[in-house]
Amino acid sequence: MTKYEFMLIMDPSLTEEERTASLTELKELFEKNSVKIEKEDVWGDKKLAYKINKSDRGFYILFDLEFDGTLIKNLSTSINLNRSIWRYMFTKIEA
């Protein structure tokens, strides 16, 4: 199992309930694929370096994950279907 950081930027105009529902869906995807969430760090609403979907703000969340790296393609395919997640990135953590 390899450790990864997973940063995502969500639509800042979502209500708290919509954001929670979207994150629950993401966590269920992780659980279904045996992805262990070691840490979740909500950074909140921040100014973006460039506009995304005509917005200069984004809602940031950082996860520390542990899983088999061969799952990234399958996870990405599912995450791409979630319209409330604007951008995301997996980064391998070197031990």
What does this structure look like?
The chain is an alpha+beta fold. It has a single domain (2-92), classed as Alpha-Beta Plaits (2-Layer Sandwich), CATH 3.30.70.60. It contains two helices and four strands, in the order E-H-E-E-H-E. The chain has helices spanning 16-32, 72-79, and strands spanning 2-10, 36-52, 55-67, 85-92. The chain has a four-stranded antiparallel β-sheet, covered by helices on one side. The protein is globular, with a radius of gyration of 13 Å.
Main attributes of the structure:
globular; single chain
List the helices and strands and how they pair.
Blueprint: E1 2-10, H1 16-32, E2 36-52, E3 55-67, H2 72-79, E4 85-92
Antiparallel strand pairs: 1-3, 1-4, 2-3
CATH topology-level fold name: Alpha-Beta Plaits
DSSP helical segment count: 2
Give the name of the CATH architecture: 2-Layer Sandwich
CATH class: Alpha Beta
How many structurally independent domains? 1
End-to-end Cα distance, whole Å, is 12 Å
Q: How large a portion of the residues is in β-strands, by DSSP E?
A: over 45%
Unreliable spans are: none
Structural class: alpha+beta
Q: Summarize the biggest pleated sheet.
A: 4 strands, antiparallel
Secondary-structure element sequence?
EHEEHE
Strand order of the largest sheet: 2-3-1-4
Radius of gyration: 13 Å
Task: Identify the overall geometry.
Answer: globular
Helix content: 25-40%
**Annotation, overall tally of beta strands:** 4
Mean pLDDT over the full residue set: 94
Can you summarize this structure?
This protein is of the alpha+beta class. It has a single domain (2-92), classed as Ribosomal protein S6/Translation elongation factor EF1B (Alpha-Beta Plaits, 2-Layer Sandwich).
